[in-house]
Amino acid sequence: MKFLIYKILKKINLFYFKFKTYLSYDFKISKKNIKLEQELIFQNEGLDRKKGEDKILSIIRDNPDLNNNLKSEHQILFSSISEKKKCPKILEIGTYDGKNALLLNILFPESEIFTIDLDENDSNFSNTYQRSKVNEKIKFCKERDDRLKNNKNIIFKKLNSINIKNLNQTFDLIWIDGAHGYPMVTIDIINSLNIIKEDGIILCDDVYKNTTINDKFYKSTAAFETLETLRNNNMIYSNLFYKRVEKSFNKYALERKFIALVKKL
Ligand SMILES: C[S@@+](CC[C@H](N)C(=O)[O-])C[C@H]1O[C@@H](n2cnc3c(N)ncnc32)[C@H](O)[C@@H]1O
Predict the structure, then answer these.
(1) Residue 91's Cα: distance from chain center in Å?
(2) Is 39 a residue whose pLDDT tops 80?
(3) 3-class DSSP state for residue 180?
(4) End-to-end CA distance of the chain
């Protein structure tokens, strides 16, 4: 009986969240105006989106395995940064399948790229990103390791980002892309500010200004609220890029994601 009530309440909750999301439909939005706005955001940061996109398209033609089917703008962002700035030391929090570290290696061939992820025995590793089945987890890790091995510029470490100071390094570019909710993303932002070089850039993925559900790993306003607090206290400069420019990803304000660019003040 208790279980049944729990299931009914869960369904009602889900329906309520869906309803709230539909209500956040933005009638003004179109792919054309998001793309134009995105190009301006790039320009304001001194970045050339078109140049970055052309470079990415040519890299993907030669390396189809690195194709980002979800059309996330982070690839174009990294690419346009690589046209403007040398980043001798790069840190990626959240290696996942290793493809992004490979892309960074192509964009920044001279750089040393540290990429960290949780140990596969950590329950947060097993319980996220469909890695709960042992066989699938072993296959996932083997493919990641094969992808990254023999690359002298990529240093992969099994390390919880809570311990990033153990790397004993400072960085020119940090990609915060581990757990996206409280408390980890807040810890990652604060720790990253302590190990970013003076003129370094921090990028933080999957930033929601608003959302229906806040969870620990995928969907949360934690990054936005943390960055707003730091910005309001004059500790950082920050700006938001659309995570995707397609209308389908932006039509509901509560589903819209951003990538934050952060500089230490
Ligand atoms: C969104 S994926 C990373 C995607 C990858 N950066 C890319 O651009 O394709 C998030 C990864 O972060 C890892 N992660 C989550 N919490 C972490 C933590 N505290 N420390 C290190 N890695 C973490 C997860 O195990 C997962 O593999």
Answers:
(1) 12
(2) yes
(3) coil
(4) 56
The neighbour count for residue 121, using CB atoms within 10 Å, is: 9
Ligand 1 atom nearest residue 162's Cα: 19
- The b/e string for 130-149 (b: 16+ C-beta within 10 A; e otherwise) is ebeeeeebeebbeebeebbe
Give the DSSP H/E element, type plus range, for residue 201: strand 196-207
- Give the neighbor-by-neighbor strand order of the sheet with 154-158: 154-158, 112-117, 89-93, 171-176, 196-207, 258-264, 236-242
User: Best of 117, 129, 174 to mutate for ligand 1, by most ligand atoms within 8 A of CB?
Assistant: 117
pLDDT tens-digit series, residues 113-149: 999 999 999 999 999 999 999 999 999 999 999 999 9
Element of type H or E holding 123: helix 123-126
Q: Give the predicted TM-score (pTM) of the model.
A: 0.95
2-264 classified as CATH 3.40.50.150: yes
Structural domain boundaries of the chain?
A: 2-264
CA 250/CA 31 separation, integer angstroms: 9
Phi, psi of 97 (to 5 degrees): -90, 0
**Which amino acids bring their CB within 6 angstroms of ligand 1?**
92-94, 96, 99-100, 116-118, 124-125, 128-129, 160-162, 177-179, 184
Calculate what percentage of the chain has a pLDDT beyond 90. 84
DSSP codes of every residue in 124-152: HHHTSTT--SHHHHHHHHHHHHHHHTT-T
